[in-house]
From TrEMBL:
Protein's UniProt keywords contain Glycoprotein: no
Xref: SMART domains: YceI (SM00867)
Protein name, as recorded: Polyisoprenoid-binding protein
Source organism per UniProt: Acetobacter indonesiensis
Signal sequence bounds: 1-24
């Protein structure tokens, strides 16, 4: 179930493109350099949360994301994003559950090793955010998804000297739409996603 969250992570990347030209209400336009960016995997995370037996909202995350963002600050709607998330990167606070999520009853990481997202539309809201839509593939199923993205910041990373742009995105998916139905509805079908995406400009 958490795997879907992974997919959402890709959508978040798409948000980056649109945010590049976003303008926060009452402020100067956000200035982000146009160009080709690659996902910076060390600081990109896809966090998922779903209701567990009606008692708690249980969370986990995916990491090791890869992908490319073509950012057009002058015309953000022309920006493009393609992302891949390894299903086997799923992590929870339970070693037993983490291992179980990779097995055939859940994400079946051996058969479906990656979740992918390819953006189809970026719509800036003029207030520092954007709606990102795209095709998300998980567990062998491809469906459109929508994320709400927000620009966080950009500039030269003082550690590696790379020009970096960062975004935050949120969305909700149904894991059963992708054939991940174990324990539904006892364990929630709706999966809330929170994605932190970092991208480094390529020279």
């Amino acid at each position: 179930m958490s795997k879907k969250t992974v997919a959402c992570t890709f959508a978040l990347l798409g948000l980056a493109a649109s945010l590049g030209l976003a303008q926060a209400e009452g402020t100067a336009p956000i200035k982000v350099e146009s160009g080709t960016y690659k996902v910076e995997p060390g600081h990109t995370q896809v966090v998922f949360s779903l209701l567990h037996f009606g008692f708690t909202h249980y969370s986990g995350l995916f990491s090791d994301v890869s992908g490319t963002l073509t950012l057009n600050s002058a015309h953000p709607a022309a920006s493009k994003l393609e992302v891949s998330i390894p299903v086997s990167s799923v992590q929870t606070t339970s070693d037993k559950l983490t291992a179980e999520l990779k097995e055939a009853d859940w994400f079946d990481a051996a058969k479906y090793p990656a979740a992918t997202f390819v953006s189809t539309q970026v719509t800036p809201d003029g207030k520092g955010g954007a709606t990102i839509t795209g095709n998300f593939t998980l567990h062998g199923v491809t469906k459109p998804i929508t994320l709400q993205a927000h620009y966080v910041g950009s500039g030269v990373n003082p550690m590696d000297k790379a020009y970096t742009v960062g975004f935050q995105a949120t969305g909700v998916i149904k894991r059963s739409d992708y054939g991940v139905k174990t324990y539904v509805p006892m364990v929630g079908d709706d999966v809330a996603l929170t994605i932190a995406g970092a991208f480094e400009k390529q020279k």
